[in-house]
Amino acid sequence: MTKENKTLKVCILGAKGYPYVYGGYDTMVKELGERLQKKGVDVRVYCHRSLFKEKPSVVNGIKLIYMPAVETKILTQLTHSFFSMIHACFSDVDVIFVVNSANGPFGLISRIFRKPTAINVDGLEWLRPKWKGFGSKYFFWASKMATKFYDQIINDSDEMRRIYIELFKAESKVIAYGANPSFDSDPTKLQKWNLPKESYYLIVGRLVPDNNADLIIAGFIQSDTKRKLVIVGDVPYQDSYAEGLKSMQDERLLFTGYVTDPEELKALYHNCFAYFHGHEYGGTNPAMLKAMGYGCAILALDTPFNQEMLQNGKHGWYFSKNPVSVSALISKAENNPEEIEGLRLTAREGLTQKYNWDFVTEQYLEVFKELKKKGKVK
């Protein structure tokens, strides 16, 4: 712990809070916050008040601030971030770190208060099918505003950096999302679903259109495989797309819903024959990193982001955005089990240093130190 770290005060806002772990941002807050705290940084995390029954002021050395929100589907996240940003600007923090490009406009507040800021803008939210119409326009505008108001834009992949230069003429620093590789799991965790080792393909992710579970399921149904397709995930609301998926008829399909036990999820990854990744928009994807860290043979949708993560085919195979391509890839996998085993054995090698949480934390720490030193850099 350096004296410089000890005097550095950083707050994090824009996620659900800590130690709440549900999505990618929440995981990042946990992994990054805990490591920064151990390095002597004064870390403060803004939490959604309504999500926490118990509200301790400190957990694992991280200071927690519980802020309200206007609790509606559209306004919850934005109003929570708005209130958190105002509170942070009146505090004595040195640097405000924001996640989620939806919070781009709130950089105007911190700019007025002359508080140094960084924002992790994540992926191409404005292209996701769930944000049609106004939602799509808002995310594009908010992402553009982030480039105007925040002192440091952070993207998690080289492809996202390129896109921000192309669309917004804005430079950003690339700091990838981290991974936690694991070699062991408890196979008895799979007994509840009666799944022997390598008897199934796996999908993990929210049941939303841009994750393309419908495409993968359609291609799987067309295939001749005797293996099952296990679909892990759901959406926390009534949704015709998700219900349509779950109504598809094939005895080889198994919908588990959410799997909240991390040991069960790890066992599902570890013991699958192959993992299907249909995520279409965004940079470094946490589910893909889990698949790599858990030694899966990865079958991914052919996108620039997935190409980057799998090093252009070194650590996975690709399918095009149609069921025929999925079905053909399944046939290839079934007919080449030794090559699938080879993908499993080398998957973790794809987790280069940039996906190491300790390395990720060091990069963020350097950003925060520079922002504190320079004050406003724009």
Automatic annotation (TrEMBL):
Domain Glycosyltransferase subfamily 4-like N-terminal: 22-176
GO molecular function: glycosyltransferase activity
Family annotation (Pfam families): Glyco_transf_4, Glycos_transf_1
Xref: SUPFAM superfamilies: UDP-Glycosyltransferase/glycogen phosphorylase
Gene3D superfamilies assigned to the protein according to its UniProt record, in alphabetical order: Glycogen Phosphorylase B (3.40.50.2000)
Domain of life: Bacteria
Domain Glycosyl transferase family: 189-341
Coiled-coil intervals: none
Database matches in PANTHER family: BLL6006 PROTEIN, GLYCOSYLTRANSFERASE WBBK-RELATED
Name used for this protein in its record: DUF1972 domain-containing protein
